[in-house]
Amino acid sequence: MIDNEKAEDQTQSTIDTSLSEETTFAQSVPSPVPDPVTTLPITIVDKPTPAPPTPEPQSYPPAHSAQPASVSAPNSSPYFPRLTAASMFLPIPNTDPLSPLLTKHVPPEQRPRRDVTGEWTGREMHEMVMSNSWRALARMARDLIVASDPEDLSRILDLWSLRLSALARLRLTNQASAECTNLFAVLNAIPPTSSAANLVLAARLSALSAYPFELSVLRARVHYWAGDARGYIDALAGLLAGCKAKARAEGKIESDGALATAEANFSMWLERSARVCLMIASQLVEMKDYHAAITLLTPLCTQQLSPNTDEPPVQSSAIHSAVARIYLLSGNISKAAEHFEIVTSCADVQAGTIATNTALLCSASGDWPRAEAALREVLEQDPHNYTAMNNLAVTLLAQGRVRDGIGLLESAMRASPASVLSAEPFIFNLSTLYELRSSTAIDKKRELLIEVARWSGDGLRAACLKMPSS
C-alpha cells in the first residue's frame, strides 16, 4: 500500500497459502486481499492458515495523549502535530527467522549475509520492494514521516500506509496494530465543535477522502491480526458501505463539466467496492463459510462499467473464476464447471485463464494427465509463469513422477531465484518433494536454505523449509 501497497504492485510470482507437516492435495482460491502476492491454484497444503493470535500488550503512546489538530487561523493550513512525532513508532526488532536455521545447519563460511539493520540510505524504493526489503522500507517510511512537514497530510498518510504495510510483511502484526492504533487515535482527535478552524480542517480532510483507501484497509486488518475474524468482517462491511455510497454519489452527477471526472471516480469506487467484497469473501472462505462467500460474490459476476449509460452490464471472467474456485473448495464440481464455462465466453478472458481453470477442474476430478496438459499449455504461452510451473509440479507428483517435479521446480529456481524463493508454498513443495525422493533430503534442503537466505528478503516463514531449528 502506497498500494503496498503502492509498494504492493510487486511483479514477483508468489503465493499465500498455509503450511502443513503432511502432504495432501487441495485447491486454493487466489487471495483477493490487495496484496502483491499471487496465490497458486494448486499447492501441497493440509489446512487453512489459522487467524493470528491475539497481540500481546505493547508499550506505546496511549490514545488519550493524542493532541487535536491545530490551526493558527481560519485560512491557514491545518495539520496534526502528533503525526510526525517519533514517539508514535516502536523500534523494529533485529531478528531474522532464518538465522537459527543457518546457525544450526550451515557452516559459518557458507552462510549468506542477512541484513537485520534495515539500512535504506542510497537505495531506490523500487529496488527495495522487488527484493522484499520490508525492514528497510519500514525504517525509511518512519524516518521520512518524522522529517516531514506536518502540513503535508497527503504525503504523511501515504508514508504511514507504507510503514504499516511493511510491518505486516515482516509479520510484526503486534507492532503494526499498535502503531495503527496510535495513528487513528490522532486522526480521530478532532474536537467536535463548529469553530472556523475546525471547519477548515474538516474541509481539508474531506478533500483527502479522510485518509488513503489503503490506510482504511489496514485499519480493518487490525481485527484480523488480533484473531477477531468477525470484527474484521464487520470493519470491511463498513468500508464496503462507504465505497458504495461514494459510487452512488458519483453516479448521480449529470453536469457536463464534471461528467468525465464523475465517471472516473465512479469506476474507482466500484473497483474499490469489488476489492472489499473479495476481501470479505476471502475471509469467509478461510472460515469455511463457502455459501456466504458465493452469495456475496455472485452479484459481482456482472458489472456496470460506467454510470449514465444504457450499455448492458458485462460478465467478469475474474469473478466467475473466483466463484468457481470456491465451489471447488466446497466440493461442488458441477457448479464450478458451470462458472468455468461462462468464463470461456467472457470478452475480457485470456487464453491462459481458460487453461488454468481447466487444470483446476481436472485436478478436482482426479484427471491429472489432462491437468498436466492444460498447465503445459499455459507455460507454452508464458514460460515465466512460475505459478503454473509450481502447479505443474503438483500434478507430476500426483502421477508419481517425483523426480520430474523436482527437476521442474529446480529449473524455476535457477531461472528466477528472486521470484520463486520468496514464495513459501514453492519452497514448501520443493522441500516436500526432496523428502519423498530420498532419506538424505537434509543435504538438498541445506542447499535450498542457503539459496533462500540469499534471495528471499524479509518476512519469510522459516517453517516452509521443514527443517528443525533446535
In short:
The protein has 19 helices and 4 strands.
Can you walk through the features of this model?
Residues 1-77 and 201-208 have low confidence and may be disordered. The strands form two sheets. A two-stranded antiparallel sheet has the order 1-2. Helix 3 runs antiparallel to helix 4 (153-169), helix 8 packs antiparallel against helix 9 (256-286) and helix 14 (368-381) runs antiparallel to helix 15. With 470 residues, it is an all-alpha fold. It has 19 helices and four strands. 55% of the residues lie in helices and 2% in strands. The longest helix is centred in the middle third of the chain and has 31 residues, at 256-286. It is flat and about 65 Å long.
Can you tag this structure with a few keywords?
470 residues, two-stranded antiparallel ribbon, two-stranded antiparallel sheet, flat, disordered N terminus
Roughly how many Å is the radius of gyration? 24 Å
* Oligomeric description of these chains: single chain
Kindly state the percentage of residues in helix. 55-70%
Strand content: under 5%
| Low-pLDDT residue spans | 1-77, 201-208
Which structural category do the helix and sheet elements fall into? mainly alpha
Strand numbers in spatial order across the main sheet: 1-2
- Counted beta strands: 4
